[in-house]
Amino acid sequence: MTDRVSTLLASRRGRLERLLGRALGQPQTGPRPPLSSKVRTFLLEEAEDLYWNELEWEHVTDEEALEEGPLAELTFPGFLAFVRGLLLTEVMPDAKAPASPRPEVVEDILSFLASRVVDLEDGVTDDEDDVERIPLELDMTSRLLDLVLYRFHELDMSEIERVEAESRATA
Question: Domain extents for the chain?
Fold first, then answer.
């Protein structure tokens, strides 16, 4: 992880702590065997594929486009569901397997998103024809990073509303 990526994640977390007036909690993990590096890499690659596929679908369809731009919550539903699944701590009583939260994979996902934000801030794109997409992708990816942080640190709805209200007030 580069210094800029680490700094971006630390500043987002620091901002949340300042706005909430408390330290951010860590996800519950419970007793479980560690993931092999192969499985951890596979899960991160699955998250990356979801990100790229859902982003491209939005570019093709403009389904979630509003006047202000697309909503990350609607543009990345599969991605966000995947993150929720990785943080799942309870399952139904008749479930065939116990909950097995994997916050370390979500940390990897946060690093991927922060890295993507840094690349977009620098104007990095694979296709020179996509330069006009950079501001939109930056906004959506930055918002997605915040949404994953909210889930990772288990913010409740009132805390999220407080953070969002402050974000709108300073924008």
Answer: 3-170
How many Cβ atoms from other residues are within 10 Å of residue 146's Cβ?
19
Burial 65-104 (b: 16+ CB within 10 A, else e): eeeeebebeebbeebbebbeebbeeeeeeeeeeeeebbeb
Lowest mean pLDDT among 30-34, 74-78, 106-110: 30-34
- Of 51, 59, 116, give the one whose Cα is nearest residue 78: 51
Helix, strand, coil % (nearest 5) of the chain? 65, 0, 35
| Cβ atoms 136, 71 nearer than 8 A | no
With cut-offs at 50, 70 and 90, classify the pLDDT of residue 20.
very high
Residues 37, 44: Cα–Cα separation, whole Å:
10
Tell me: pLDDT of 64 over 60: no
How far is 86 from 2, CA to CA, in rounded Å?
24
